[in-house]
Structure formats: C-alpha cells, structure tokens
Amino acid sequence: MGMPDRPRGHSPSSLPDGGAEGDLGDLVLRVARTLRRRGAEAMSPWDIAPHHARALKVISRHEGIRPGELAGHLRVAPRSVTDVVDALEARGLLAREPDPGDRRATVLVLTASGRQLMQEIGQARRADADTYFARLSATDRADLERILRTLDTAG
After folding, report:
1. Which of 32, 43, 58, 89 could form a disulfide with 73 if both were Cys (CB 3.0 to 4.6 A apart)?
2. Coil, strand or helix: which one is 106?
3. Among the residues of the chain, which ranges form H helices?
4. From 9-13, 27-31, 65-69, the region with the lowest mean pLDDT
5. Which are the contacts of 129, defined by CB distance < 8 A and separation ≥ 6?
C-alpha cells in the first residue's frame, strides 16, 4: 500500500492539516537533531563524547557539585555518572575533592585543563551556531530566542 497522493505544488506544511512533516514538534526535533549533530562535529577536534561535554558543562556551572547532583542535572542514574566521572578524571579534566561540608562525600571540580577545554568547545559551538542561525534576520533570531526561552521556562 502506497502513501496517499499529495496535491501537486503543495509542500507538506502548506497542506490544510499541516501534513506529517508539518507538525511543529517534529520540526523542532529535526532542528534540534541538526544542531546536536553540528555540535558534535564542532567538538570532534577534542575527541570528546557529547555526554562527557554535557557533564563538564554542568560541573563548570556548579563547581563543587556532588556526583549524585550531577546525575540529577543530566537526568541519568547515579551509577551512570560514575563511568563519566571516571573517564573525565582519567583525562585530567576534572578532579574529585572532599566535600568541605561533609568529609565522607566528594565534590567534582574542573581542572585547569577542563576549564580550558570548556572554553575552547564553547567558542567552537557558538561560532557554529552563529553560522547556522545567520540565515535568519536579527529580528527573527531575537524572536526565536524569546519563544524558545518562554517554552523552556514553561517546562
């Protein structure tokens, strides 16, 4: 059984019902996948997995975070964070230190190498995003940012 014919000269999003490809959620997901792929490509010179970069980003924003809190920010099981932290520590990008408030616990801090890496990756990803969004006018970029921030805070 084939797909139903579409009227000629109409894109899926111009059909009265929007068509499957015209669904706003699907469109947002396609753009997000493109940005994720481009971001991974921008990070390739540093040979770091995207989930490792996300962990470093959270740690850079919450210096002295406990591993369990990191798991919460990443929305993964605490045991999954252990592998990530071990790998990043082995590369010299972060260190485990005693929690000043509870000597039995540890906190995660970036090393100088980890901070440098985050700065370099951040610059590369921002440059790539600027290139990607350059096709939009400044007004459209500002509108898109406003709309996405509204949706992001709405949860």
Report:
1. 58
2. strand
3. 24-43, 50-61, 67-74, 78-90, 112-133, 138-154
4. 9-13
5. 35, 38
Residue 106's region, left for phi above 0, alpha for psi from -120 to 50, else beta, is: beta
Q: Which two tokens stand for residue 51?
A: 């989930």
CA atoms within a 13 Å half-sphere pointing along the CA-CB vector of 57: 14
φ/ψ of 89, rounded to 5, equals -70, -40
For residue 103, name the pLDDT band (cuts at 50, 70, 90). Answer: confident
Residue 7 DSSP code: P
One-letter amino acid of 55: A
45/23 Cα distance (integer angstroms): 35
Rounded distance, CA 147 to CA 70, Å?
28
Look at strands 94-99 and 102-110 and give their pairing: antiparallel
Closest CA to 84 of 123, 128, 46, 53: 53
pLDDT tens, position by position, 112-151: 999 999 999 999 989 999 999 999 999 999 999 999 999 9
Please tell me the pTM assigned to this model.
0.72
Tokens of 35: 């940005």
Q: How far apart are CA 22 and CA 28, in angstroms?
A: 10
